[in-house]
């Protein structure tokens, strides 16, 4: 018996999230089916985290136990031939038996993408939130930094969260702007990529943070209102939950396991 750890990228547009759901059609379902077809086992894979319906991933990590003798480096190609085209295994390695992709993870990074140009990108529209009206991007970036630290994030968690403890640590936030598609002398503001890294995230936490930042960009809140929203520990104090399609799990980090850079 050995423990195999893999990384997978997926376009979540047509899936009900990563983790198996009663309604089926999840990324986990397709991965387990592909593994079973390949080696004749019925695996139970463990993902590094859940993603909601419509959310994407670059570098999602999962692991499972297997008796198969297939060398680790041959698994990605073998599985990709059995997976839908919007799910791609990008790496595999043997890990210690005690390794667990979720419990062993030290921090995770998510990216949320807003197209702040006047017109939507017809090719990437399913992975971006298009905001045609002008945004105060500087205010959004200032507000984003207020989330760094260890706080009770009840205000930024789904009302249906089943976690007993809502304290989480946000380690870093940053904004990168891609101006490559902006048109000269127009109101285009570029493609805004918001990155957030933490030791863990609550259900809908990143999307609620982004919904709140959008309101800041629209002038509905000042950047310095964020600390008060956090301190309120009341979901109604924060902004709406932003759409899922613009969110991507961007990477999972471990102390002793290294994955090839994306």
UniProtKB/TrEMBL annotation:
UniProt cross-references to Pfam families, sorted A to Z: PseudoU_synth_1 (PF01416)
Active site: 52
GO molecular function: RNA binding; tRNA pseudouridine(38-40) synthase activity
GO BP terms in the entry: tRNA pseudouridine synthesis
Domain of life, per lineage: Bacteria
Keyword Lyase listed: no
SUPFAM superfamilies reported in the protein's UniProt record: Pseudouridine synthase (SSF55120)
Keyword Methyltransferase on entry: no
Ranges where the Pseudouridine synthase I TruA alpha/beta domain occurs: 8-101, 143-255
Enzyme Commission number(s): 5.4.99.12
Similarity annotation: Belongs to the tRNA pseudouridine synthase TruA family.
Identification of the protein by name: tRNA pseudouridine synthase A
Lineage, top ranks: Bacteria, Bacillati, Bacillota, Bacilli, Bacillales
Gene label: truA
């Amino acid at each position: 018996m050995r423990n195999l750890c893999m990384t997978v990228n997926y376009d979540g547009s047509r899936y009900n999230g990563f983790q198996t759901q009663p309604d089926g059609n999840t990324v986990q379902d397709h991965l387990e089916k592909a593994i079973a077809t390949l080696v004749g086992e019925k695996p139970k894979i463990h993902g590094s985290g859940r993603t909601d319906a419509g959310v994407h991933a670059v570098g999602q990590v999962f692991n499972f136990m297997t008796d198969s003798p297939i060398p680790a480096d041959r698994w990605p190609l073998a599985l990709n031939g059995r997976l839908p085209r919007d799910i791609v295994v990008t790496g595999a390695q043997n890990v210690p038996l005690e390794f667990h992709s979720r419990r062993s993870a030290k921090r995770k990074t998510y990216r949320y993408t807003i197209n702040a140009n006047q017109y939507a990108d017809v090719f990437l529209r399913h992975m971006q939130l298009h905001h045609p009206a002008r945004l105060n991007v500087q205010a959004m970036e200032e507000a984003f930094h207020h989330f760094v630290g260890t706080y009770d994030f009840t205000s930024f968690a789904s009302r249906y969260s089943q976690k007993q403890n809502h304290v989480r640590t946000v380690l870093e936030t940053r904004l990168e702007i891609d101006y490559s598609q902006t048109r000269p002398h127009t109101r285009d503001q570029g493609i805004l990529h918001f990155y957030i890294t933490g030791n863990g995230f609550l259900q809908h936490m990143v999307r609620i943070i982004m919904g709140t930042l959008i309101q800041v960009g629209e002038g509905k809140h000042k950047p310095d209102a964020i600390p008060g929203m956090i301190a309120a520990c009341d979901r109604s104090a924060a902004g709406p939950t932003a759409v899922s399609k613009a969110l991507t799990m961007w990477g999972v980090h471990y102390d002793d396991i290294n994955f090839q850079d994306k």
